[in-house]
Amino acid sequence: MSDVQLSSSEEQRVDVVLFDLLTAVLDSWTLWNDVAGSEEMGRRWRMAYLKLTYGCGRYVRYETLVEQAAASVGLDAGYPATLARRWGELRAWPEAATVLAQLKQRYRLGVVTNCSTTLGHLAAAIPGVAFDVVVTSEEAGFYKPDPAPYQLALDRLGVHADRAVFVAGSAYDLFGTAKVGLRTYWHNRIDLPMPDGAPAPFAMRPTLDPLPADLASLAATPR
User: Fold this and answer.
1) Whose CB has fewer CB within 10 Å in the chain, the N or C terminal residue?
2) Does any domain span residue 3?
3) What is the model's pTM?
4) 176 and 81: one domain?
5) pLDDT tens across 94-124, in order?
C-alpha cells in the first residue's frame, strides 16, 4: 500500500490552539499590581515569580514560589495570601472572550498554565468559553518551559504538535514550545523584550484580535 500524499494545506492544517492562561488570555498583571499596591511593585513581584517558575523545572508548590518571589522584592507573607484570596478577581483581556468563541467554532482549545491545579481550573473558567483540556504545571509535574506540560496537553487531545499552535503570553514559552515542535504566536501585551536566544514566534502581536486571521494564514503557508 502506497503512502498517502498530503496537500500543502493538509500538511499545515491547525486543529488545536493551546494557550498560556495567566498572561495570554487573562490580565493577571493588573491583579498582581493591585495586591502589591503599585504597578512598579507588582511588576517587580511578578517578574521575580516568572524568573522562579521558568527556572524551576520540576514542580514545586506554586504558592511557595509566589511567596519566595514576594519576599525577594520586600513584600511580606500577607501579600501572597491576599493574591490567593482575590484570585477570582482575575479578568480576561477585553477581546479574549470574543476571540475564543470565534476560534471554538473551528478548533479545539486548550490551556497549559504554570500554576496549581486548583487555581488553574478556577482561572480557566473566567473567560466563559469551555476549554477542551486544561493542563497545569502541578498535573504535568514540571513548570514551563519544560516540554512536559505542552506535551501532556497534546497527548490528552490526541494530536501531534504539527496540528497545533501555542499562544504564549511570555517569550519564555518559546523555549519550551520549540522543543515540542509547536508553532507559537506571542501575545506580547505589555511589550516585553525578547529573551536572548529565544526562538522566533511565527507572529508577535499586542492583542489577540489578529489571531484568527493569523491562524488561517499560517495554515495556508508551507513550512
Assistant:
1) N
2) no
3) 0.91
4) no
5) 999 999 999 999 999 999 999 999 999 999 9
